[in-house]
Amino acid sequence: MNHILALIKKDLLLEIRQQYTFYGIVLYVASTIFVLYLAMGQPEEKVWNGLFWMIQLFICVNAVAKSFLQESQGRMLYFYTVAGARDFILSKLLFNAGLMIIMSIVSLLLFQLLLGNPLHNPVRFIGFVCLGGCSLSLVFSFLAAIAARARQGAALMAILGFPLIIPQVLLLMKMSNTAFADVIQAGLVQIILLLVALDVLVIALAVILFPFLWKD
Fold it and tell me: The pTM is what?
């Protein structure tokens, strides 16, 4: 646990020192939402929801890809000597999940500011946004680890990621649709449990497979 916390602290300090990366992503989010506002004004509920999750998908690709791709081979060798592979991958998963939750909240605020607020239950939607941001970050963090070890860059992560992430995005959109009505949709609990189960599966796969990638 101490190794995981130390690695998370390292990533946090790097993020603070390299603030241009974080602000670059925020600028990307703000400019994209502003273009949508100029093109569509304030769309209807289903379009609003679909656009929100599509933008979250691209935000996650930009925010998570750099987490592994910025690590040089020499630095990875140093981490191998001071921490285990499981500690390293868990620290990356936790840090990226926290970063993506923050970016999701920022994106939601900008959406409500520019594209209106059609939500009937904003508290429920915020919970779905946090869960969805965490889920997206886990998948792309795992894929970024594979792409980095394969030395193929972000292109491989995008190629592998989009077919895998589409079912997850569809679940998130179906789940978040309940926040646009006062009535709780039947099967909502099953959808949430399925999404959580997918997250647990991704974490398990990362913990099991990453040590083999690390050794290579």
Answer: 0.83
